Amino acid sequence: MDVLIHLFVGLHIIGIASLLGGFLTQMKAMGQGTARFVPAMLHGAFTMLVTGVILVGLNQADDQPVNNVKIGIKLALLIVILGLVYVKRDDEKVEKGLFGLVGALTVADIFIAVLWT
Ligand code: HEM
C-alpha cells in the first residue's frame, strides 16, 4: 500500500508541476494582459483533484491519519482554481488580475501543503 500511496503522491506532484508550469509560461504575457489559461493548467488542476481524492481514499483504507482541515482548505482553493480555468479555458486573453489570482491561489496551495505538517 505504501508504494501505491507514494506513486499517487508522485502523480499529484506531476499535476502541480503542470498547473504551476503552465502559469509560469504565461507570466510575461500576463504583464501585457494577453495571458491565457493553457491546457496544461486545466489538466494539471484536474490531475490534482483526482489524485488528491484517491490519496485520501488510499490513506483511509490504510488507516493512516488524514488532516481533514488541511485537505479541506487545499480542496477549496483548488475548486476555485479549477472553476476559473475551466470556465475561461477558451478565452484568448484573460485579464491580468484574474490570471494573477489563479497563480497566487496555486502558490498558496503549495505552501499550505508543505508548511502545514
Ligand atoms: C493545488 C492544490 C494542491 C497542492 C499544491 C497539493 C500538494 C501536495 C503535496 C506537495 C503533497 C505531498 C506532501 C504531503 O504529504 O503533504 C500532497 C499530498 C497529499 N494531498 Fe495534495 N495538494 C493539492 C490538492 C489536494 C487535494 C484537492 C486533495 C484532496 C481532495 C489532496 C490530498 C492530498 C493527500 C491525501 C496527500 C497525501 C498526504 C499523506 O500521504 O500524508 N491534495 N499534496
Briefly, what is this?
By secondary structure, this protein is mainly alpha-helical. It is built from five helices and no strands. Protoporphyrin IX containing FE (HEM) binds next to helix 1, helix 3, helix 4 and helix 5.
Structural descriptors:
mainly alpha, 5 helices, 0% strand, 117 residues, binds protoporphyrin IX containing FE, single chain, 79% helix
Outline the structure in words.
With 117 residues, the protein is mainly α. Helices cover 79% and strands 0% of the residues. α1 packs antiparallel against α3, α3 (39-61) runs antiparallel to α4 and α4 (68-87) runs antiparallel to α5. The longest helix has 24 residues, at 2-25. The chain is elongated and about 50 Å long. The model has no long low-confidence stretch (mean pLDDT 97). The structure holds protoporphyrin IX containing FE. Protoporphyrin IX containing FE binds at residues 5, 9, 12, 16, 48-49, 52-53, 55-56, 59, 66, 71, 74-75, 78, 106, 109-110, 113-114.
